[in-house]
Amino acid sequence: MEKKSHVNKLIIHTILIIGAVGMLLPFMWMLSTSLKSFTEATQIPPTIIPKKFVWKNYSDVVKLLPFGKFYMNTFLMIGFRVIGSVFFSAMAGYAFAKIKFPGKNILFALVLLQLMVPGQIFIIPQYALVAKLGWLNTVKALVVPGIVSAFGTFLLRQFFMTLPEELEEAAIIDGCNRWQVFWKIMIPLTKSGMVALGIFTALFAWKDLMWPLIVNMSVDKMTLSAGLASLQGQYSTNYHQLMAGSIIAIWPMVLIFFIFQKQFIEGIATTGSKG
Amino acid sequence: MKASTPKYETNITMTKHNGFLNRKYQDYAWAYLMIAPTIIGLLILNIWPIFETVKLSLHGNGNFGAIGEFIGFENYKTLLGDKDLWSAAINTFKYAVISVPLSIFISLFIAVLLNSNIKGKSIYRTIYFLPIISAPAAIAMVWRWLYNGDYGLINYLLSLVGIKGPQWTSDPKTALWCVIIIGIYTTLGYNMVLLLAGLQDIPSSLYEAADIDGAGSVGKFFAVTLPLISPTMFFVVITSIIAGLQVFDYIFMIWDTKKIGIQYTQSIVLLFYKNSFILNNKSYGSAIAIFLLVIILLITFVQLRLQKKWVHYQ
C-alpha cells in the first residue's frame, strides 16, 4: 500500500514536471533569444545558452521605442482603472445588496445587460466619444472604458450579500448613516473581495490590446502591449530584439506575480466562483 | 394636565413615524448616490453604445467618421454574402470548438493531479499560471518565433527526427492550429485555478464514503469528482466559449499582411477590427459586432438549456 502510493506520487510528479517544462519553454526561449546576436539567433542548429551574452539588445530596443513611457502609461492605465472600478463597484455593490430603493431591479438589470454583451459592441461608440472629447492619444483615453465595472458591481454585491443584516442594524441604531455603515463596517469586511476585484481588473487592463491600439496611435502614449505590437510591426524579423522587448515588457508583472502569487491565485479563484 | 398627556403620546408616535420616513428617504438618497457613478458610467460607456452600434449598423458609412444615410439592413445583406466573414466565422467556431474542450480537459487533468496529496503544489500552480500574467502580445511573439519555418525551434526539433516542418503560420493546413495551441497554452492555467478551487470544495467525506463502497480512483472520479465539479465546469465552459469566440490578440500578433496565411486564421473580431479601424468602415464594423452578439447570445442560450442535462447543483 505504502509503496503503491509512492509510485503514484512519482507518476504524478513526472506528468506535472513534463507539463511545467512545456509551460516554461516559451519563456526560456524568449530569454535565450533575447541575449543572442542576430546571427546566433538565426543559426542552425540553434544554441540553447547564448555563446556570448548580447546585453546590447536590451539597450537597443529601449532606444528604438520609448519603453519608459510605455511602463508609465500602462501603470497609469491600470492604476486608475483599479482604483475607479474597485471604489465605484464597492459603493454600488453595497447599495444593490443592502438598501431597498425604488427602481433597484431595473437599474441592476443594466448591470447584468453589460455583462451579457460582448465588448466589441461598445468599442466604436466609445471610440467616437473619446475622439469627440479630444482625448485620443492621452492616458485618459486608456482609462475611460474601465473606470466603472459591471462585473465588479456584480461581484462585490455577492460579497455584501453574505454579510448578516444585524451588523448594519446595530450601527444604524447607534445613529450611523448609510455611508458610515458602508465605510466603517462593510468595507473592512469585504477586503478580500476588493483585492480579488483589483487583481482581476489589473490583469485584464494589462492584457487589453485592441483598445490601446486604436485610441493611442502616437508612440509616447502607447501601453506595453500596443508598444510590442508596434515593435513587431517595424522589426518583424529581428527576433532577438523582439524577444528582448518582450522580456522588458513582461518582467515587472512576472515579478509582482511572484511576490503576490497567493493573492493572485486566490483572487482569480474568487472572481470565478462568485462571479 | 390630563389633556396634555395624549397629545404628548401622539407627538412621540409622530416623531417615530417621521424618523422612520426620514430614514427611508435618507436610505433612498444614499442608495442613488452610491450607485450613481457606476450607473452613469454604464449608461454612457455601455448602454448608450449598444443603441449607437445598432443605429450605426443600419446606416451607410459617412466621410471622416460621420454617420452616412439610413440604408436599413443593407449592411446585414452584405454581411450574409461576405465570404471573408463566413470564413472568419468558421475559423472562430473551429477555434472555440477545438481549443475550449482541449484546454478544459487538460486543465481538469492537471487540477485533479494537483489536488492529490503531493509536495510542491504551489510551485506547479505558479508555473502553469505564468502565461496568464504575461502580455498576450509577448506570448504571441515568442510563439511566432517558435513557429518560424526557417529558424524556429519547433522545426529544428522536428528536423532532428527527420521531419521537415511546414511554414506553420502561413500554411493553410496548420495556420489555425498555431492559434489554437497558443489559445490552450494561455487559458490552461486560468481554468486550472478555477477547477482546482472547485475540487477543493468537494467534502472529503464523499470520497471516504466511496472508499467504503470499494470504488477505485477512476470510479471515484466519475462518481464523485465529475458531478460535483460540474457547476464550476459549466462556468468555465461558458466563459471560455464566449472568450474563444472573441479571439483577437494572438491572431492579430501572428498576422502578417504580406503572407497569405491570414485568410485561414482571420477571426470575427479581427474582421471587426479591420473593417472598423483600418478600412474605417465603422457602419459595417458595427454590423459585424451585432452579428457576433447574436452568435454569442444563441450559444449561451443553448448552453443554458443543455446544462440541465449535465450540471449537478447540490
Defining traits:
heterodimer, A: 275 residues, mainly alpha, MetI-like fold, 2 domains, 15 helices, 77% helix, B: 314 residues, two-stranded antiparallel sheet, 2% strand, disordered N terminus
Write the layout of secondary structure elements.
The complex is a heterodimer of chains A (275) and B (314).
Chain A: H1 2-34, H2 38-41, H3 56-64, H4 67-98, H5 104-116, H6 120-132, H7 139-143, H8 150-161, H9 165-173, H10 178-189, H11 191-207, H12 210-215, H13 224-234, H14 239-259, H15 261-274
Helix pairs in contact in A: 1-14, 3-14, 4-8, 4-11, 5-8, 8-11, 9-10, 11-15, 13-14
Chain B: H1 4-57, E1 59-61, E2 67-70, H2 74-80, H3 83-114, H4 121-133, H5 136-147, H6 153-160, H7 175-200, H8 204-212, H9 217-245, H10 249-254, H11 262-265, H12 268-278, H13 282-310
Helix pairs in contact in B: 1-13, 3-7, 3-9, 4-7, 7-9, 9-13, 12-13
